[in-house]
Amino acid sequence: MIVFSKDSNSWGSYWYDPKEDALRVTVKPARSEYHEWLTYEFPVREPENATLALKWEELQVPIRIAVPNAKELWVASIRSQLRAGLGFDGHFLEQAADWCLQNKVNLPRRWSGPKRR
Length: 117
Fold this sequence. Notes:
Blueprint: E1 2-5, E2 21-25, E3 30-45, E4 49-66, H1 70-83, H2 90-102
Antiparallel strand pairs: 1-2, 3-4
């Protein structure tokens, strides 16, 4: 099991307090090539998920990280950036629209013409 703590100031397990756990992940260690130092690698990197591999000596611990709403997070980030100075540059507006089109997200509804009374 790997424990991620909210306390980033304490060193090692000397002052460990379970109440400060942010996340606990059950993992299955696997064999790895030798690493003298603790190494963090991302052998799988995709837009909505990745695998973090902690490697030390001859063991590795792969941890899968998934972001199910990655596209919505990207759209929120793009909107935030465009509200600042980038929104006044047509190049950035075009890039944002192109990204949304390519990823089929945040697209306008189909316009059906003016409403009749």
